[in-house]
Automatic annotation (TrEMBL):
It comes from the Bacteria. This is C-3',4' desaturase CrtD. Coiled coil: none annotated. GO terms for molecular function: oxidoreductase activity. Residues 12-486 form the Amine oxidase domain. GO terms for biological process: carotenoid metabolic process.
Length: 492
């Protein structure tokens, strides 16, 4: 009989840890406060329409990708559709096409800036070479920052002579490398990069860790996918595997207290039910830990985690739209970024994902569902009047920008609702509607990340606040680290 494991939160990180440990033979109980799985990668239905909670595309599903490795270990393949044309990036000065083929992609970008052709090609060559070296570490997937002798040994064993090439870049930002290539003042080019980075790294080219930025900018070329239905399918596949391996999943169970004893852990949910465990995987927002843990346990948390609990991240306004295709002059692109030139937040930049015309999981024939999301600062939502005003202003701003690109779009809308921070707080349990994890700056990335080890024996963490960061790939990787530490072996 394996260990008795309690997982709190059925987001992608928690489901990854739970399904891997159940497959490993451990007795896993997973508690989810919501009636839906997947957290920020979940879904909801309105009438005949299904909406993914977040506007995003499928990554990490290529051979050897993080999600592909998990699903292969679980023996649970997932239907996907690879994309050769990843997305359109609409900016004030031009519309760029993000293509899977690296050469065609660079050719297309360089064509917009002929006077900088040599510099842009040199920059992308370095990006591709750096990302290729970083990917050699994705196989062993060492945990950062290493917290135990075993993790240090695993990291050292994963390092090869080729990784010496990464050392000069360890404390550099993407901004440093743009300056090196003579591109620091090419603002339209940087703005295009910022649009890509804000969605994946939660910050722009000036401050983002170069090693992570290189990986993020290049990963689309490894494989980007349309997942029929949406990324909530990740959650369903892992939940099915959990059940098949005798794990227990309980929805609508909010954990109120988490206590440690000599024999292990004891949790109490809002219904008064108690749960005993040898170890706990915490996939709820880290800001909730002070409500659950006793003060003496809070004092044992590692310093980066304790500081992270007190820190703000982005909030978002998300629009959920269903449109009548017959009223559109042209089919909607599956994925599109739109930047108006007004910065990377507050509706100046947003990501728009549409259902495939043949995706009957999301909409009936003749209709498409669309999810649109922009970054926003929490200070714009901190009182009732500001909340209403910000929601109204950002909605109008994004709809106007879409209408400019897709004439007749607003007339085609048959359903529209708004997911403002309070809605995210209500449906995903995230305090203040914080989403996306911390910006991947030098101060919070790689060796400065928050470890999956909390500092308290038997309490592990996963999710977008934990190394390696946001997105489904980052959440899944943190779940893998938690599962490995509990199982005492690699698993995937």
């Amino acid at each position: 009989m394996g260990k008795k494991i309690l997982v709190i939160g059925a987001g992608i990180g928690g489901l990854t840890a739970a399904s891997l440990l159940a497959k490993n033979g451990d007795a896993v109980t997973l508690l989810e406060a919501s009636s839906e799985l997947g957290g920020c990668a979940g879904k909801f239905k309105r009438h005949k329409f299904l909406f993914p909670a977040g506007a995003t595309l499928g990554m990490g599903l290529e051979a050897g990708g993080i999600h592909e490795r998990v699903f292969r270990f679980l023996e649970a393949p997932l239907p996907i559709e690879p994309l050769d044309h990843v997305m359109e990036m609409v900016h004030p000065e031009a519309t760029y096409q993000f293509l899977k083929d690296r050469k065609l992609h660079v050719d297309g970008i360089a064509a917009h800036f002929p006077e900088y052709d040599k510099q842009i090609r040199s920059f992308y060559q370095e990006i591709q070479q750096t990302a290729a070296v970083v990917r050699t570490l994705m196989g062993p997937l060492p945990a950062l920052p290493p917290s135990t002798p075993k993790e240090w040994a695993y990291l050292v064993a994963a390092v090869r002579p080729v990784h010496v090439k990464l050392l000069p870049f360890l404390n550099q930002t993407l901004g440093h490398r743009l300056a090196h290539h003579g591109l620091a003042q090419l603002h339209p080019f940087r703005h295009m990069l910022d649009g890509l980075l804000i969605d994946s790294m939660q910050t722009g080219s000036e401050d983002v860790s170069y090693l992570l930025a290189a990986t993020a900018l290049d990963i689309y070329h490894e494989g980007a996918f349309y997942v029929p239905g949406g990324l909530y399918r990740f959650a369903e596949v892992m939940a099915d595997s959990l059940a098949a391996n005798n794990g227990v999943l309980k929805k609508r169970r909010t954990v109120l207290k988490l206590e440690k004893s000599e024999s292990g852990w004891h949790a109490i949910d809002h219904r008064g039910n108690g749960y005993e465990a040898d170890a706990v995987v915490f996939n709820a927002p880290i800001q909730m830990l002070p409500q659950m843990l006793q003060p003496e346990l809070m004092k044992q948390l590692k310093k980066p985690l304790a500081e992270g609990i007190q820190s703000e991240t982005w909030t978002t306004l998300t629009l959920y739209i269903a449109v009548d295709e017959s009223k559109l002059a042209e089919p909607l692109p599956l994925f599109r970024q739109i930047s108006t030139g007004g910065g990377m937040a507050e509706g100046g930049h947003f990501f728009m994902s549409s259902s495939h015309a043949e995706d009957r999981l999301r909409a009936p024939e003749g209709f498409r569902t669309v999810t649109v999301s922009t970054h926003s600062e929490a200070r714009h939502w901190d009182d009732k009047e500001k909340y209403k005003s910000t929601r109204r202003t950002l909605t109008a701003k994004m709809l106007s920008a879409i209408e400019e690109q897709i004439p007749g779009f607003q007339n085609a809308i048959v359903h529209l609702e708004k997911g403002a921070p309070k809605a995210w707080e209500r449906f995903t349990g995230r305090p203040n509607g914080y989403v996306g994890g911390f910006p991947q700056t030098l101060d919070s990335a790689l060796f400065n990340s928050i470890s999956h080890r909390s500092g308290i024996s038997g309490l592990y963490l996963c999710g977008d606040h934990i190394f390696p960061g946001g997105g489904t790939i980052g959440a899944a990787a943190s779940g893998i680290h938690a599962a490995r530490s509990i199982a005492g072996k690699r698993l995937v």
